[in-house]
Each structure stands twice: as C-alpha cells, then as structure tokens.
Design goal:
Rossmann fold, alpha/beta, about 40% helix, about 200 residues, 8 helices, five-stranded parallel beta sheet
Amino acid sequence: MVTGTEEKLPKDPPPSALLNARYEVVPFRQHGREAVLAELDRWCDEGPPIAVRLLHAEGGAGKTRLAIEWIRRRRDQRWAAGFLPGKVPDDWFEQLRALGPPVLGVIDYAESRSDLSTLLERVHRSASQKKGNRYHQMRFLLLARNDGDWWQSLVRTDSPLSRWLGTTPPYRLEPLATSAPDRKTVFREASEWFAKKRKKKL
C-alpha cells in the first residue's frame, strides 16, 4: 500500500524529466538537511503510536527529494516506508497496519488531494482508540507547498480531528541555496548531472 521510491529514468529523457525528484538524477545533498532529518527521526521514534505531520515549502525546495531519502533511511531501520498512492482502497489503513513493522506513509501534494480529509479521519479514528496503544508506530507525513487555507480549514475548526492535528506543528522546509553564490553552485552541479544523464557535454 506504500509505494516505492525507485523509478527508472526514461530512455533519452526530455529535459522536464530530469527535474522529477522521483528519478533522483541529482544526488541528495545532505549538507543543510541534517536538522530536518534529525527532527523527522525524532518525530518517528518518539510520541504516540500514530501521528500525522505537515512538511511544507515552495515548489522546487526539495520536499519530495528529502522524503525519498528519509524513506530509504527508515527502510534501513526496518520500517515499511513509502508514498501513499493517489487512489487507495477502502481498507488501506488496515492493510498498512497488517504489514507488521512500523509504518511511514508519505502523502505528496497533500493540499490537492480531494480525499485528504477522509484519509486523516481514518488515521485519527484509530489513534483515538485506547486499543491503538497496542499497535506499532505509524507515521504519516504530508508534503505540501504551503500551510495556507487548505491546512487552516483542517486545524481551525472545532472538531476532534482539528485539535489532534494541531498538537504537532507543521515544519517549514527552508531552501538550501539562499545566496547568489550558493545558487550558482547548486545550478552548476545539477547541470553536470543532467548533462551526464543525457550523455552531452556542457
């Protein structure tokens, strides 16, 4: 029910494909991401059995690429980790819970999912049950471009789900390159990897 992160780059890929984080054309840059990875690990390993958290940043900041790397690391720790598909069956949560090891499900483009409220209601229902304390760890990370109206509509209503979501603050992912020299370096490195994949010279 959680899909993998490994996707093969098409033969003779168009330039747009090189920008797709799922193809991992450019290696993951850990420098500057140590803090967020440590915080996500802490969130995974501590706290209640079942929890949801939002990680947001503008498009191109590296949310999906970060999630791919983190999923890989949690798998190395024997977690069942991956992306939740765009369409899930009615018993998706039960399937995840039956996997055995702890579960990490990443929901990409969360703000655009029409079924998000339904998904979160199902997670909350299980988290609210006293018997849920017997379950292994389950974490659901939402990736989105902002924590705007769509998120506020979830956390600012007077409902058990809103209060539960509000207990874990969203994490804003900062861009890696903020200065002109940094952006130039990142652009150069990416160009070199793009050229290598397309077997071209810069």
